[in-house]
Amino acid sequence: MPVAQAAANRFAAISDLTVIENASLAAYTRFGIGGPAALLCDTDSETAFIAALHLAETLALPRVVIGGGTNLVVSDAGFDSLVLRFTGRRISLDGKLLRVGAGAVLQDVVDHSIGLGLKGLQTMTGIPGFLGAAIYGNAGAYGHSIQEIITEVRFTNGAQIDVFTNKQCRFQYRESIFKSRKEWIILSATLRFEPGDSGELRRTADEIRAIRDAKYPPSMRCAGSIFKNLLVADLPAGVRAEIPSKLIREGKVPSAWFLEQVGGKGIRRGNIQVADYHANLIYNDGGGTAADLVAVIQELKQRVQNRFGFELEEEVQYVGFDYAVTPE
Ligand SMILES: Cc1cc2nc3c(=O)[nH]c(=O)nc-3n(C[C@H](O)[C@H](O)[C@H](O)COP(=O)(O)OP(=O)(O)OC[C@H]3O[C@@H](n4cnc5c(N)ncnc54)[C@H](O)[C@@H]3O)c2cc1C
């Protein structure tokens, strides 16, 4: 639904809201792929952000909220309605708790907590994006995920603000309640830490950072892992029997293993490339299109389906596709 000029003017009238018509979404994604948003509203003011969400509700405008764009596949056609981005990044300390705006860059929160000698986020160093999306997708690495330190999440549907406890967030591996209730937008969260030694935490974080930077060079246009890893217990017995036991950690097996078995490494289509060293990593080599990216993703899924009889599930989130492509 294109945004009428009168509606665009109403967003433009909200104080502290940056409003861009026909904004290229490629510029807002790490893949560097995606057509325009009819209207993009960007703000670090929580008040302005809520006002924009409220107006979107009032006008019944389809809308999508993005963060740092590091886990997004945006269609070449873009999104013919409203895209909202919240960059409110306030961090305040309350004992061993940090209250953090959803628009804070996760790495800034990691660095801030380490600087304060707070232990809990150090293994998440190098995960790009904002805190809000990290909660939405229960981001994690090195055997830990954000759910372990969340005590409360504040969110809104544009009309009212609510607070959920950790339990109410229904965290699971790369899942939270916010993935199934996309109208609930995270505004801020409270994070609980253990006391730690800044120097030691920094060393752990730096070691992880070096490994991650080798795997995902900072300039690489990608989304990290395309597919979620698999819970071994959910796999058919015949498939389980084929998995080398040394690959299973915390009950999960990397989807990269299945992708390797079907020759996924190094596949290329246009300027979209599956890394030759990691079958679950796809990058845009420059000038890549969403059409080619989605075709490569579908090709990988099909190969795994044909060989192993189950469907891989994307970790990346789609914007601007019809529901035939967009997983819910
Ligand atoms: C190089 C690289 C390495 C990565 N490594 C990891 C890793 O180790 N572990 C891991 O878990 N992820 C990893 N990722 C994926 C990505 O960093 C995470 O998914 C991250 O949390 C996405 O944050 P973002 O702000 O960029 O979100 P976006 O990509 O902008 O959005 C992701 C989703 O979050 C939703 N969303 C955004 N903000 C909000 C909000 N305030 N409220 C509700 N929903 C919201 C969006 O609608 C969208 O569906 C990696 C990505 C890259 C590029």
List keywords for this structure.
328 residues; alpha+beta; Uridine Diphospho-n-acetylenolpyruvylglucosamine Reductase, domain 2; binds flavin-adenine dinucleotide; Uridine Diphospho-n-acetylenolpyruvylglucosamine Reductase, domain 1; Uridine Diphospho-n-acetylenolpyruvylglucosamine Reductase, domain 3; 21 strands; four-stranded mixed β-sheet; globular
Structure in words:
The protein has 328 residues and is an alpha+beta fold. The chain folds into three domains: 5-86, Uridine Diphospho-n-acetylenolpyruvylglucosamine Reductase, domain 2 (2-Layer Sandwich), CATH 3.30.43.10; 91-196, Uridine Diphospho-n-acetylenolpyruvylglucosamine Reductase, domain 3; 218-319, UDP-N-acetylenolpyruvoylglucosamine reductase, C-terminal domain (Uridine Diphospho-n-acetylenolpyruvylglucosamine Reductase, domain 1), CATH 3.90.78. Helices cover 28% and strands 27% of the residues. The strands form seven sheets. A five-stranded antiparallel sheet has the order 6-7-13-11-12. Flavin-adenine dinucleotide binds at residues 30, 64-72, 86, 102, 127-130, 132-134, 136-137, 139-141, 178, 185-186, 216, 222-224, 317.
- Provide the list of bound ligands, each named once: flavin-adenine dinucleotide
Counting helices, strands and paired strands, the structural category is alpha+beta
Total domain units: 3
User: In percent terms, what proportion of residues is strand?
Assistant: 25-35%
Q: Could you name the CATH topology of the largest domain?
A: Uridine Diphospho-n-acetylenolpyruvylglucosamine Reductase, domain 3
- Poorly predicted segments: 323-328
Note the run of SSEs as H and E. Answer: HEEHEEEEEHEHEEEEHEEHEEHEHEEEHE
Q: What is the CATH C-level name of the largest domain?
A: Alpha Beta
Give the spatial strand order of the biggest sheet.
6-7-13-11-12
Biggest β-sheet, characterized?
Answer: 5 strands, antiparallel
Number of helices: 9
Overall shape? globular
The percent range for helix content is 25-40%
CATH architect. name of the largest domain: 2-Layer Sandwich
The beta-strand count equals 21
Rg on CA atoms, Å: 20 Å
N/C terminus separation: 20 Å
